[in-house]
């Protein structure tokens, strides 16, 4: 699991540790970790000795880290040049160490022939987007041929929210110190960080709950339902799917397809007769049941809403019956328009995209897009349900607070009609198999993204291709 903490939490943990260590020790640890990663990158392109390294050096401790790491590389024979953001404000000890090791200051032409650029302009002390010379240097780094290694985080991203306001450094790799920051897990900032490596500097006084966490492959493998030897189809779980309508039958098909790939023993379909007949033609193994959920056979969880129209009495009734069953359920798409007066709870997973979330909160879509972390937390708290906010980084929040999950497997290939229906079916199956709502939603998003990544290798994908690659995604984790 990758755990990320907010800047004020990291600062408190850092102060606790600094009080117990000699002056400057923490920066030395950070710089040593940074220099080790830089050396590894340079080794892959011909070695540290003689390599040309440019440092972008800001006015704070982020610049200090870069200078001490640069000194370490210079001692190993690298030709290190420091481009200072402000010559009147620079970490004096770091600059002295660099010069003593044979490095020197330079103007920004140092970027032109560098093999590696180390971005030490701004770390967790940064506020707002890059301005003036910092923005200019970020653009020059983007134009240069060198690989870019960010110190702690790419300069200019918002560490706490993952927002990017204006120009910001785009790194190939980031060395982050002590703990992840939410911005390293949430787009658009995460996308600017490249491969993120965590350097342990001994921070221990971090809060019990992370602000944001991201499941990794091993976590997901541990959560996937696995049938025991002596199981049967009912013990594995039965999921009910109340999706699809006469006007939108495809959404019902795709949700059923996702549910069939979610590790349950059986899928029951409840909906219009003609949609049920279509489903049976494609999947004879589905149990096609009554048109209303309350009349269907027993299930352990429901999926409802994909392909349900708004302002429709039958759709409202299907949604209400699913929620009234008090079973765990996924409410997607159309079902999100019928939430008034329903008794939601943590066991209900709502799956809005930013537009649907905006409508539920009575705000503009752009506001949600601009601060997805706050809005997913707010929506979960306000509606009293588990909320999965879809998007380039899908986020999942519980109504009682706690760590928000950020999905690490997203790919733009998923932005294709019907892909959300597959996701809803998949999460419903994981709920029926017994995963708790937060885990079902985050494992579902992880597998959905992984299936998208596998499928896109063969070319552009449609939602149906996700169904075909889900078993491969599953296999990859076993
Ligand atoms: N937190 C930790 O545990 C550790 C932190 N260290 C380093 O210290 C960094 C934090 O250092 P600082 O607190 O000095 O902060 P930074 O070095 O991130 O930034 C400091 C200064 O940049 C200026 N600034 C802020 N926003 C700006 C903007 N948008 N454009 C231009 N200038 C701007 C301000 O004058 C601010 O005081 C971390 O990111 C990390 O690199 C490490 O040295 C050691 C361990
Ligand atoms: N830029 C993106 N990068 C990664 N995933 C995305 C992006 N845009 C959308 N997605 C994902 O694609 C899926 C689209 O779902 P949704 O908006 O409900 O579409 P539909 O209703 O057509 O199925 C969601 O899982 C969402 O997280
Ligand atoms: K930085």
Would you write up a description of this structure?
It catalyses: (6S)-NADHX + ADP = AMP + phosphate + NADH + H(+); (6S)-NADPHX + ADP = AMP + phosphate + NADPH + H(+); (6R)-NADPHX = (6S)-NADPHX; (6R)-NADHX = (6S)-NADHX. Its EC number is 4.2.1.136, 5.1.99.6. One of its GO terms (biological process) is nicotinamide nucleotide metabolic process. InterPro entries: Carbohydrate_kinase_pred_CS, CARKD, Nnr, Ribokinase-like, YjeF_N_dom, YjeF_N_dom_sf. Homotetramer. There is one protein chain. By secondary structure, the protein is α/β, with parallel strands linked by helices. It has 2 domains: about 1-210, 3-Layer(aba) Sandwich (Rossmann fold); about 215-475, Ribokinase (UDP-N-acetylmuramoyl-L-alanine:D-glutamate ligase, 3-Layer(aba) Sandwich), CATH 3.40.1190.20. The protein has 16 helices and 18 strands. It has helices at about 5-20, 25-45, 60-75, 90-100, 130-145, 190-195, 215-225, 250-260, 275-280, 315-325, 355-360, 365-370, 370-385, 420-430, 435-455, 465-475, and strands at about 1-5, 50-55, 80-85, 105, 115-120, 145-150, 175, 195-200, 210-215, 240, 265-270, 285-290, 300-305, 330, 350, 385-390, 395, 405. The protein has an 11-stranded mixed sheet, sandwiched between helices. Strands 4-3-2-5-6-7-8 form a 7-stranded parallel sheet, with helices on both faces. Helix 2 crosses helix 3, helix 8 (about 250-260) crosses helix 14 (about 420-430) and helix 14 (about 420-430) crosses helix 15 (about 435-455). The mean pLDDT is about 95. Ligand NAX binds near residues 61, 128 and 131. Potassium ion binds near residues 119 and 122.
């Amino acid at each position: 699991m990758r755990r990320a903490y907010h800047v004020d939490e990291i600062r408190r943990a850092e102060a606790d540790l600094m009080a117990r260590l000699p002056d400057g020790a923490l920066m030395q640890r950070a710089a040593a970790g940074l220099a080790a990663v830089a050396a590894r990158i340079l080794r892959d392109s011909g070695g540290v000795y003689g390599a040309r390294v440019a440092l972008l050096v800001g006015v704070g401790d982020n610049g200090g880290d870069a200078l001490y790491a640069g000194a370490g590389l210079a001692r190993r024979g690298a030709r290190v040049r420091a481009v200072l953001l402000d010559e009147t404000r620079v970490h004096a000890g770091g600059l002295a160490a660099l010069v003593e090791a044979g490095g020197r200051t330079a103007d920004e032409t140092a970027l032109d022939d560098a093999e590696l650029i180390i971005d030490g302009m701004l770390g967790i002390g940064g506020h707002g987007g890059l301005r003036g010379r910092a923005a200019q240097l970020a653009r020059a780094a983007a134009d240069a041929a060198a690989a870019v290694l960010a110190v702690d985080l790419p300069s200019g991203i918002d560490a706490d929210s993952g927002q990017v306001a204006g120009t910001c450094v785009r790194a190939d790799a980031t060395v982050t110190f002590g703990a992840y920051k939410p911005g390293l897990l949430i787009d658009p900032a995460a996308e600017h960080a490249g491969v993120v490596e965590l350097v342990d500097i001994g921070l221990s006084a971090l809060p019990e709950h992370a602000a944001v966490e991201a499941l990794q492959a091993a976590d997901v493998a541990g959560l996937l339902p696995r049938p025991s030897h002596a199981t049967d189809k009912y013990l594995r779980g039965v999921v009910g799917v109340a999706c699809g309508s006469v006007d939108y039958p495809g959404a019902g098909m795709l949700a059923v397809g996702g549910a069939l790939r979610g590790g349950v023993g059986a899928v029951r379909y409840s909906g219009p007769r003609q949609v049920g007949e279509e489903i049976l033609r494609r999947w004879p193994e589905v149990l096609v049941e009554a048109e209303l959920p309350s009349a269907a056979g027993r299930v352990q969880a429901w999926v409802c809403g994909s392909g349900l129209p708004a302002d429709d009495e039958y759709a409202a009734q299907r949604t209400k019956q699913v929620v009234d069953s008090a079973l765990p359920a996924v409410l997607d798409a159309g079902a999100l328009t019928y939430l008034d007066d329903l008794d939601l709870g943590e066991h209900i997973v709502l799956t809005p995209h930013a537009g649907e979330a905006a409508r539920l909160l009575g705000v503009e879509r752009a506001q949600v897009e601009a601060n997805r972390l706050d809005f997913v937390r707010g929506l979960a708290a306000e509606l009293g349900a588990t909320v999965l906010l879809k998007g380039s980084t899908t986020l999942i929040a519980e109504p009682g607070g706690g760590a928000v999950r950020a999905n690490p497997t997203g790919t733009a290939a998923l932005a294709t009609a019907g892909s959300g229906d597959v996701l809803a079916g998949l999460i419903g199956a994981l709920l029926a198999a017994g995963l708790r709502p937060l885990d079902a939603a985050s494992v579902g998003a992880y597998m959905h993204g992984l299936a998208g990544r596998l499928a896109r290798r063969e070319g552009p994908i449609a939602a149906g291709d996700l169904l075909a690659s889900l078993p491969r995604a599953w296999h990859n984790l076993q």
